[in-house]
Prior knowledge:
By secondary structure, the chain is mainly alpha-helical. The chain has six helices and six strands; from the N terminus they run βαααββααββαβ.
Amino acid sequence: MMVKRRKLVALENAFAAVGHLSGVKFVYGIGKNSKRIADDLELLREGLRRPTKEYRECERKRADLCKEYATKDESGKPITMPTPGGQRGQEEYIGLVGNMEFDAAIDELEKEYKNEIDKRDALTDEYDDALDEEIEFEYYMISMDDVPEQITVSQLRSIMDVIKDDEPTKTVKKEPAPKEG
């Protein structure tokens, strides 16, 4: 079956969300699909995981600038808040938005590391393009009978691509509306 890699990433996340559910056949199917997806996406992600030494240096300096220009608490420690929509544990510094001194310092840093930033942006664009590629991928199908009863509607909807419905579809025949007239 042809599928976009972006769909595989969504399924990978969906499988993580149902990972706590039980049932040997269900868990086996989720595990088997997770492994297939991980194998396909591994090479794709490998390039993003290993930023160059220079890019890591730029990121470290950027983080230092954030700490330096952020609003500080009474003890002089930068104040942070959870990143809206971010992953658990991800935080952002308070006081940087609209901070002209911070903006100027970041502009200088970006000029200094322009080549490295451009290379990383190109790599990110390539990754994003690769996610939109259609590839041949075969799911390991899980019988609806093996899906745990504790699964929620949203969890089930997110993994529907790997669920096979063992019951034949029943068609309800509608009676034609009476003709007027």
